[in-house]
Amino acid sequence: MSDDQVLEGIWVRLSEVAVKGAQYNSREHQPHPKCLRGTRVDLNYIHELLDDPGKNQLIWLHGTAGVGKSAVAFIVAERMRGLKVTEETNVEKRLAGTFFFSRKHTKRSTAGYFFPTLVYQLVTNFPNIRKDVSRIIRDNPALLDPDMPLRDQMEALFLKPLRKLRLRLQGCPPLSFVVDALDECTSEPELTDLILFLAQALSDPDLPVTHILLTSHSESHISKVMQDKEVCPLVREIPVRTSGEGGIISLDGADVDKDICTFFRHAFAELERHHKEFPQPSEHVLAKLASRAGRRFIVASTMMKFIDDGDPRDRLHLMLELTIELLPGTEVYKSYERKPTESGQLRNTMIFDLFCPCVCASNEGECDQCDQCDKTYFEGNNDVFLGKV
After folding, report:
1. What is the pLDDT of residues 94-145, one digit of tens each?
2. Under 8 Å CB-to-CB from 44, ≥6 apart: which residues?
3. Higher-pLDDT residue of 344, 19
4. Residue 80 contacts residue 50 (beta carbons within 8 Å)
5. I want to staple 10 with a disulfide (CB 3.0 to 4.6 A). Which of 134, 136, 285, 363 is the partner?
6. Is the bond preceding 31 in cis, omega lying within 30 degrees of 0?
7. Per residue in 201-250, pLDDT tens?
8. CA 110, 95, 180, 208 torsion: positive or negative?
9. Contact 213/50 with Cβ under 8 angstroms?
10. At 179, is the secondary structure helix, strand, or coil?
């Protein structure tokens, strides 16, 4: 077997190990979390950081569940994929790779597939380093094992390939990687190591200018590693808040409510396609629904899924019956205490289909995978959860 055939076989093996579902535009997480037309999208600050030809950066976007971090990650990745490294090329784009973590999918909930997945995308974008990467793997096939030490994977599958691109990209705009939902990595020590190793890689003087956009919840173990002496000098922190106070990206409450109204308007228009006789809600109704979403897009999205999964008139009416005396964002959860209006199963359906995804997404419940929840557990313990929301 010739050397070229061996290297081709290694490339095929890499393509099998790489997690396609972790790519930002994978069908695995459709519908993709885009921002709707008419909502406030001001990403100039992030774009300016990604366009900075100076030193390498870890750009950390963090905030609570449902404020739109994944939508930002998707939009940024889409933009970078549309930008060429040079005007002379049609293949090489500034988006070098993406990895969207998800605790629902085994290979996307661990860092073991992170570097093989990124290097596969990097080589696809820069075919001239394909043989170099194949030779690296040929010399150490265990690099594709998810149990391989992360440091070894980082050095072989991240540092070395990027070093090969330094001369090719001299004078070119920076490369970008986008990593979404760090908190969905189920091992805190593994995630801590991953962030440390990314920082160490970006500190290498032989790399082309490279920026990595990271998104996550504002969790203590992530904040702690971002303050590490090796990591901190590279970090550009972007807190996302919905209070209108503080944060580089501060989402004013009135603006968020307006955007959620826009979301509901769009969602009800889509719902009308398969519920032809369902009348479109008034602007007053949309405003009331937005209020009950508590400035959390994930709650608004889950409310629409619940309304759509049955008779939309009855389910919308149930949402509008909820008391307005509760704090924003809690109204929807209190509906579990109401008696069923459709059937004896409505209350149970609401607990599982509406409450579970919202709570799990903010890591406040005990469920790691919504599609494997024990419905009986939630039915018996919803009063406990209500105190956490």
Report:
1. 999 999 999 999 999 999 999 999 999 999 999 999 999 999 999 999 999 9
2. none
3. 19
4. yes
5. 134
6. yes
7. 999 999 999 999 999 988 889 999 999 999 999 999 888 765 444 444 44
8. positive
9. yes
10. strand
Q: 34-38, 156-160, 266-270 — which is least confidently predicted?
A: 34-38
Distance from C-alpha of 71 to C-alpha of 35, rounded to nearest angstrom: 6
Q: Look-up: residue for tokens 């709570």? A: 359
3-state helix, strand, coil in the chain (%, to 5): 55, 10, 40
Rounded to an integer, what distance in angstroms lies between the CA atom of residue 233 and that of residue 200? 11
Whose CA is closest to 136, among 114, 119, 151? 119
Q: How far apart are CA 265 and CA 29, in angstroms?
A: 23
Q: C-alpha distances in angstroms, 319 versus 157, 275, 279, 301, 314?
A: 50, 18, 16, 13, 9
Phi and psi at residue 99, to the nearest 5°: -145, 115
pLDDT bin (cut points 50, 70, 90) of residue 385 is very low
CA 330 to chain centre: 24
- Spatial strand order of the sheet with 249-250 comes to 95-100, 175-180, 210-216, 57-62, 235-241, 249-250
**What confidence category does residue 293 fall into, taking pLDDT thresholds of 50, 70 and 90?**
confident
Residue matched to tokens 């313990």 = 381
**Separation between Cα atoms, residue 330 and residue 351, nearest integer Å:** 13
Query: Could you please report the per-residue DSSP string of 133-166?
Result: HHHHHHH-GGGGSTTS-HHHHHIIIIIHHHHHTT
Alpha helices in the chain, H assignment, sequence order = 3-17, 44-51, 69-81, 114-125, 130-139, 150-154, 160-164, 188-202, 220-226, 253-271, 283-292, 297-308, 312-321, 331-334, 346-350, 356-361, 375-386
